[in-house]
Amino acid sequence: MASTDPIFLKNCWYVAAWPHELIDGKRVARTILEKPLVLYRGESGRVVALDDRCCHRAAPLSLGRVEGDNLRCMYHGMMFAPSGKCIQIPGQEVIPPKLGVGSYPIVEKDQLVWIWMGDPALADPALIIDYPPLRDPAWRGLPGYLHYDANWLYIVDNLSDFAHLAFVHTHTLGGSEEYAFKTKPVAIERLADGFCVERWNMDSDPPPYHRKVIANKKDKVDRRNIGRMHVPGIFFLETTFAPAGSGAERGNLAGAREYRNCQFMTPETRRSTHFFWNYLHNFDTDNPNIALSLYESMCEGFNEDKAFIEGQQKLHDLDPEFKMLAIGADAALSHFRWTFNQRLAREQAAATA
Ligand code: FES
Ligand SMILES: [Fe+2]
């Protein structure tokens, strides 16, 4: 599977896991950018990422045992430090200094475990994109994970276009087919590392996922979505439902209910993706059923997307040369692919130099 084609950006932070996946000495085997890795939390609390392949006889280290902050391969017992260096060989005194496995920088921030797959000397934690709602108690949500059998850029495309809400998610997240005909992006901002789009839908019925968690189900709403996508595949969505005609477009948010949604696409391989997400809300936060209901609605919605996205990947595999034709609504996703390719070309040029 692995190849040397330049298709992944390496010098950037990717989400590798939610912290709850690493409780109780669990070793998580997870492939990222076509590198099989093992992730675990050592006894000191630090999270470690190593190659999931023992340098001795290539046994999976994810079948190993955590001892302190180290990991013992449970085939012949060699032990590896968080640096990847072999520090013990049962029955052998001398350990050749070169013996070891790859180790990757990890940072935990705001309920996310981030990994750096490129040059460790460049792994600056200040480059991790900040998402304050994940640490702000005013917002409540549940962490989610979904695996896609598709290249991450198909998921980025999907999130870049709100028009699909109307058709793919008519009865879940969208609410009506009308959304695609009546609403247009009011602004597309081209960012150096992605884009920002804003879309309004005035005087409409609350979509099903929102209706489930509010009492005034029949009242019309003005709905605003602001989506931001950042290289390599990080999406933030700000959603506001204000009482129809209340002037939300002029900044009056009295009576509005808001959501903050973050989604992190981490390539597993060139044709599969880890998808981490959290859909947070800031109203009735003392009622845990709201977060649960939103979690379930999102799972339903994302599975609707998944059918289309994995279908695209299957068709791509049958005919990789097929050229897609753009329409006006694709401006944001086209810009994203352009910025991504620029960044990839710069990284490749620096690596060659
Ligand atoms: S394969 Fe890991 S110690 Fe032998
Ligand atoms: Fe969708």
**Small molecules bound:** FE2/S2 (inorganic) cluster, fe (ii) ion
C-alpha-based Rg, rounded: 22 Å
The CATH superfamily title of the largest domain: Naphthalene 1,2-dioxygenase Alpha Subunit, Chain A, domain 1
CATH classification, class level of the largest domain: Alpha Beta
Tell me, briefly, the overall form: globular
Strand content: 25-35%
List the helices and strands in order: EEEEEEEEEEEEHHHHEEHEEEEHH
Overall mean pLDDT stands at 94
For the structure shown, list the relevant keywords.
binds fe (ii) ion, Naphthalene 1,2-dioxygenase Alpha Subunit, Chain A, domain 1, binds FE2/S2 (inorganic) cluster, globular, Rieske Iron-sulfur Protein, four-stranded antiparallel β-sheet, seven-stranded antiparallel β-sheet, 7 helices, 23% helix
Walk me through this protein's architecture.
This protein has 2 domains: 13-127, Rieske [2Fe-2S] iron-sulphur domain (Rieske Iron-sulfur Protein), CATH 2.102.10; 132-349, Naphthalene 1,2-dioxygenase Alpha Subunit, Chain A, domain 1, CATH 3.90.380. Helix content is 23%, strand content 31%. The chain is built from 7 helices and 18 strands. It has helices at 152-160, 164-168, 170-174, 178-182, 208-211, 288-318, 331-352; strands at 13-17, 28-32, 35-41, 47-51, 65-67, 70-72, 79-80, 86-88, 103-104, 106-109, 112-116, 143-148, 185-191, 194-204, 221-230, 234-243, 257-269, 272-281. The strands form 4 sheets. A 7-stranded antiparallel β-sheet has the order 12-18-17-16-15-14-13, covered by helices on one side. A 4-stranded antiparallel β-sheet has the order 2-3-4-9, with no helix packed on it. It is globular and about 80 Å long. The two termini are 26 Å apart. It binds FE2/S2 (inorganic) cluster and fe (ii) ion. The site of fe (ii) ion has 6 residues, from helix 2 and helix 6.
